[in-house]
Amino acid sequence: MPKRIILHVDLNSFFATAEQQTNPSLRGKPVGILKAIGRTCVIAASVEAKKYGVKTGMAAFEAKKLCSAIILLPADFDKYADITYRFINICKTYSPTCEVFSLDECFIDISETEKFFNGALACAFEIKDRLKSEIGDFMTCSIGISHNRLLAKLASSQIKPDGLFTITEDNALEILDQSDLLDVCGLGFGLYTHLVGLGIDNFPKLRLCSLYFLNKHFGSYWSLHLYNVSRGIDNSPVMPLAEIPDAKSVSRTYTTHRLLTKKEEILKLMRNLCEETANKARQMNLCGRYVGLALRSSQKSYWGHRTLKTYIDDGKRLFDLCCQISQSWPIDHVRFCGVTLGMLTKNQYLPIPLLPSDKRQLDLMSTIDRINKRFGDYTIFPAQLLGMDIVRPEVNGYFGDRKFRLNFLRNN
């Protein structure tokens, strides 16, 4: 079997750099991106902010302590999505086997196509040049080259920003041994904590563990995973968008930055999340007949669901069902709300509207979707949401819904 050649392309400090690209006055300055106005979590930091120690997931007040000059901006998700589409289109020209790993990351298997671009290095440099010429001169990416996905992603993290690094079979173990356990994709905090608890805090120690020992402590699946990761082994394929399985459910959750005590504002949030969930389904050309609702206060949680006989993709109907589910709940002091639409299928199975009022509603919903797609989310929205800070779609790879984004990108 011929050796694979995988590129991992990672846009540097994506959200913050996108703002600096479109607003040159921000270039060279520390910038932090918040989910929205009033939110306190930094979801992205510019290269300049990172030099002060500002990190993704940090509270805004902590970022201010580290860097008093940091400029905090609300996220502009429409802008980021537009750049992502152009980024993906660049990557797809180098191989049909291109996996969108998140909104700012792609894996490209160029094993069969690198010969048309004068090799992997030339291919990588061309991607960097096109990123600047086709998206913006301030946009940079780090690219890792290796013979599997695991090592290609690790390679892209070696030099940032604007780096290019190759991991071969000759230097793979050396690079792994210089890396922290959490530096490797697929080794999360839970596994890390368990490993450290066993006295295994680096890759050389993990490599000394037998499969029997690992199986005893982690089970058959994770033992083999850890055994392979410690040796740089990864046979997983690069998965093009067309091969991504259909979503089984769509959902939207939201944790408020203050306690909601008025029933009216709680219902507004619920309606908002119903619109978000239904919109996700429609964008993927899906509909569902399972409705779930979760509400949580600081002391108690509530959960309920309904299974329907017919499929829906309408935010208003979803909201009406959520109101029925929560009818007996004491709706006050809410901090968290989540809405789910499950048992999904293609929207060709939606019942054909027979009544004129149902047909008007379907036509109205389709028209609103087209307007919002052209002019931006919530250009038109339910009057019930007037007077509130509308919860908008999240597209960030860490905080958002990756399955939705990938299904959406595949269908569009």
Automatic annotation (TrEMBL):
Short name of any one Pfam family annotated for the protein: IMS_C
CDD domains with a match to the protein in the record: PolY_Pol_IV_kappa (cd03586)
Transmembrane portions of the chain: none
Entry-linked SUPFAM superfamilies: DNA/RNA polymerases (SSF56672), Lesion bypass DNA polymerase (Y-family), little finger domain (SSF100879)
Lineage: superkingdom: Bacteria
Family annotation (InterPro entries): DNA/RNA_pol_sf, DNA_pol_Y-fam_lit_finger_sf, DNA_pol_Y-fam_little_finger, DNA_polymerase-Y, DNApol_IV, Rev_trsase/Diguanyl_cyclase, UmuC
Entry GO MF terms: damaged DNA binding; DNA-directed DNA polymerase activity
Annotated GO biological process: DNA repair; error-prone translesion synthesis; SOS response
UmuC domain: residues covered: 6-188
Family: Belongs to the DNA polymerase type-Y family.
Protein name according to UniProt: UmuC domain-containing protein
Species, as recorded: Candidatus Curtissbacteria bacterium RIFCSPLOWO2_02_41_11
